[in-house]
Design a protein that fits this description.
247 residues; 2 domains; Serine Threonine Protein Phosphatase 5, Tetratricopeptide repeat
Length: 247
């Protein structure tokens, strides 16, 4: 084999190796003792993170896990798209299996999926299921106080318990008022909080304040398109029907 052919062969092997590496990308777990595991994360059950390393499956207690790196499954992206497009039934069919499998996994997408499940149930008027989903979220992600409170506020609004909703939302709204640019996940949470506070203010007859809340969700914290659409609709109604202007 001449030198040119040899170089072409080596280049082909490098490309093939890179392709195979991408196709077999591993999940990563770093334990609190510093140990690192690579494999395929299968899910969470009974307080343990299940991972497949080679042919063997093992479990790692969640309280011993420092960090996790795992890309969201395609179904998660499809669920978010369905939700943004206003299709709660499709969202539920895609989202629930993901949450059932990965609830408690310390990743942003798994946390968001678990929080969103309660909202989806609420949009379908399944209040008991929503309440259960929010309770499970609070248990699985005890440090996600803002998302938990937003979920409970949404549940309270659906029951027309506006006083409880307001108590849950006030700290989040106060925090959001001081933010200039929020990261994507946090921005979506602020948007939900301002939208819900708008509904609270409407219930109190405080229409200018409600309009301000809705416009904050539309213009400042607009990552959740489904919330933006609802907030814009409420804002338009206040302007048209009640001749409200922002204070």
């Amino acid at each position: 084999m001449n030198a040119s052919a040899s170089r072409r062969c080596c280049l082909a092997l490098v490309i093939l190796w890179g392709t195979l590496s991408m196709l077999t990308a591993q999940d990563f777990i770093v334990q609190k003792d510093g140990q690192r595991r690579e494999g395929e994360i299968l899910g969470v059950a009974d307080g343990k993170l299940k991972i497949k390393v080679g042919p063997a499956e093992t479990g790692i207690a969640l309280d011993q896990v420092a960090s996790v790196t795992k890309a969201p499954p395609k179904e998660y992206e499809d669920a978010i798209k369905a939700w943004q497009e206003g299709n709660p039934n499709k969202t539920l069919s895609l989202l629930k299996p993901i949450v059932d499998t990965f609830r408690g996994l310390p990743t942003e997408w798994a946390e968001r999926a678990a929080a969103l499940l309660g909202d989806v149930y609420l949009s379908l008027d399944q209040l008991a299921a929503a309440e259960s989903a929010f309770a499970e979220f609070t248990t699985s992600y005890p440090n996600a106080t803002s998302l938990s409170d937003i979920g409970l506020a949404r549940l309270a609004v659906s029951k027309k318990d506006f006083a409880t909703a307001k108590a849950k939302l006030l700290p989040i709204i106060s925090e959001g008022d001081k933010v200039i640019a929020a990261p994507a996940g946090k921005s979506a949470a602020y948007g939900q909080a301002f939208y819900l506070m708008g509904m609270v203010h409407e219930s109190e007859g405080a229409y200018p304040e409600a309009l301000r809340d809705y416009l904050s969700a539309v213009t400042l914290f607009h990552d959740d398109r489904a919330v933006v659409a609802k907030a814009q609709e409420r804002a338009d109604l206040l302007v048209k029907e009640k001749q409200v202007i922002v204070p």
